[in-house]
């Protein structure tokens, strides 16, 4: 059970990292629905390639942590650091699930944009899944 869940989580992180790398090299697919906008339709931020690359690297690192937790990948440090990493991942995605209470997350007030709709039905539930699954795996492993 833990093995399969870790593989699923790692694959999600790898796919998300590949999508971010696609955006780093100039790809546009899906980008318009991934950045929150204000009430006037203006983007709340314009991520540069450096920030997007950093997110991709972070997501790959999260995949590595999940794969090392089940022994698929060997890391040069003690296993309890891997478990701490899983708790950190769980916390990061729980905060993403909660959001900023205005434009992002499950408790957002503004819900009239393409991003807001996708956030409600895709991004926030995915964040909750990644939070809970990493936390549960950290406890079980």
The secondary-structure element order is HHHH
> What structural category characterises the helix and strand content?
mainly alpha
Biggest sheet statistics: none
Could you list the spans in which at least 5 consecutive residues all have pLDDT below 50? none
DSSP strand (E) fraction?
under 5%
Number of helical segments with 4 or more residues: 4
Radius of gyration using CA atoms only: 16 Å
Protein architecture, described:
It comes from Sphingobacterium ginsenosidimutans. Keywords: Membrane, Transmembrane, Transmembrane helix. The chain crosses the membrane at residues 6-31, 52-75, 81-99, 120-140. With 141 residues, this protein is mainly α. It has helices at 2-24, 49-69, 79-98, 114-140. The chain has one domain. The protein has four helices and no strands. Helix 1 runs antiparallel to helix 4 (114-140). The longest helix is centred in the last third of the chain and has 27 residues, at 114-140. It is globular and about 50 Å long. The chain starts with a helix and ends with a helix. The mean pLDDT is 93.
Characteristics:
141 residues, mainly alpha
Short recap of the structure:
With 141 residues, this protein is mainly alpha-helical. The protein has helices at 2-24, 49-69, 79-98, 114-140. The chain has one domain (2-31, 43-140).
């Amino acid at each position: 059970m833990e093995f399969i869940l870790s593989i699923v989580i790692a694959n999600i992180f790898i796919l998300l990292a590949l999508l971010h790398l696609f955006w780093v090299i100039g790809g546009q697919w899906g980008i318009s629905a991934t950045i929150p906008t204000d009430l006037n339709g203006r983007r709340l931020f314009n991520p540069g390639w450096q920030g997007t690359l950093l997110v991709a690297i972070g997501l790959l690192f999260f995949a590595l942590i999940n794969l090392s937790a089940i022994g698929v990948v060997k890391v040069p440090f003690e296993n309890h650091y891997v478990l701490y990493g899983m708790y950190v991942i769980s916390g990061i995605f729980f905060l993403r699930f909660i959001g900023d209470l205005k434009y992002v997350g499950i408790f957002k007030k503004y819900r009239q944009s393409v991003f807001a709709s996708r956030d409600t039905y895709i991004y926030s539930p995915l964040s909750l899944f990644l939070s809970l699954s990493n936390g549960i795996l950290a406890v079980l492993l």
